Amino acid sequence: MNDTPLARILIADDEPLYLRTTGELLRKSGYRCVCVADADAALAALNSEPFDLVLSDLNMPGNLKLELLREGRRNWSHIPLIVVTGVPSVPTAIESIRLGIADYLLKPVKFEDLLSSVRRALALPSNSLPAVERSEIERVGLTEKFPEIIGRSAAMLELFDIIDRVAETDTNILITGESGTGKEIVAKAIHQHSQRRDNNFQVIDCTAIPESLFESVLFGHVKGSFTGAVKDQSGLLSHGHRGTAFFDELGELPAASQAKLLRAIQEQTFTPVGKNTPIKVDTRFICATNRDLEFEVREGRFRRDLFYRLGVIHIMLPPLRERGDDVILLAERFLPQLRSARSSVVGFSDETLDCFRQYDWPGNIRELRNAIERAAALSRSELIQVADLPEPLRRPPTDGKAAGSVIGNASRDKALGNAEHSYLTSLLEKHSGNISQAAQQAGLSRQGMHKLLKKHEIAAADYRQ
Ligand SMILES: Nc1ncnc2c1ncn2[C@@H]1O[C@H](COP(=O)(O)OP(=O)(O)OP(=O)(O)O)[C@@H](O)[C@H]1O
């Protein structure tokens, strides 16, 4: 359906003031609007006249289990539906996305944002709206749409489904998952499949910005605004204008910076240091962290309002050990990319593949890539052997069910030694072999860390990239 001035919009919301003003403003913008206060009235209206778009609240009478969304998408799947809610929640957001909504907006929503979302939804060709539920075959088909993300496990097929549905919307997204699970690659895929694809995907690493320089780096500054500001400098946010700003390691952001970021996101404006006039920016925010942000919010270390603002859609990436035989698929795809042109390596021995299946992969896909690159360089035969793998992969598993059997047969010293070994390897994975950082997290001196690594015959260099 095209964005004609006569497009008909059904607005369902139980807040009388919101309903009236939204209806009036959309009429002034040239749309024909029908306003109703609950889901039953909305379904009755859909049954009796044609609409081009539905704007729906979530928490209103008759919609507590998303009845309007479900029936709307089942019976009128050609009509785009935008959710506008004052009570965001992760389950309803995910469910809404799964049902194929065109956008998910948070109240209070600025009218201009609502209008651009309405225009975008009306411009969608009706056959581009995803069906309510995708079959297994359709989901498998999506793997071709995201060739850079390798995976066929049920968890990954579900992920492709979600990425595909959220890409077209303009909703902020929070991606969580252990280190190396692919948060950045997923964020990039969302950007590349969105209408912002022709503009920048601006990566902002929260750990790389000193707290005192947060505003200057993010918003820019003018010459002379502080000691060291020798020339005008634009901020990273302005590079993400009309594109996507990807905030990596969001969980590390100090409280003062969280407040500044929240203001920029809410108002979609920022003021460079030393200037008085704010600059408008049109950016989609995707944030990633390997921390449990809900826990951080409960502990008072992360702002609840920022968490809700950013986490409208929350994508949780499964660790590699929960992706079944994806580990083999990934290994087979990585090998030709990572071996040198002169290498005679063509594959993996069965024992090597077993090691891949049994290992815990604390560093996830990044660790797998590194292991394969190293093994391909070391291998002297056509098939990579267990002996070519980094030491941690060659050890029997030490936790979960396997740990039970190790502990069952091992002395206390041996069991504790195993636990210490796997703790150290996870630490090195996490800190990419950086001994100072690993020591700091473990509460040890560098010297103490070196001693422990020596005791366990672990080479930190194996974990560097
Ligand atoms: N499903 C996948 N298919 C192919 N490559 C992947 C996949 N997931 C991750 N990778 C690769 O693994 C490496 C780590 O991925 P990425 O940087 O996206 O992880 P991350 O979760 O953002 O890590 P961190 O939390 O440490 O920043 C990259 O080289 C990336 O290309």
TrEMBL record:
Keyword NADP: no
Domain Sigma-54 factor interaction: 149-377
Residues bearing PTM 4-aspartylphosphate: 57
Response regulatory domain: residues covered: 8-122
A Pfam family annotated for this UniProt entry: HTH_8
Gene Ontology molecular function terms on file: ATP binding; sequence-specific DNA binding
PROSITE patterns, per the entry: RESPONSE_REGULATORY, SIGMA54_INTERACT_1, SIGMA54_INTERACT_3, SIGMA54_INTERACT_4
Gene Ontology annotations of biological process type: phosphorelay signal transduction system; regulation of DNA-templated transcription
SMART domains xref list: AAA, REC
Superkingdom of origin organism: Bacteria
Keywords: ATP-binding, Nucleotide-binding, Phosphoprotein, Transcription, Transcription regulation
Protein name per its UniProtKB record: Transcriptional regulatory protein ZraR
The gene coding this protein: zraR_11
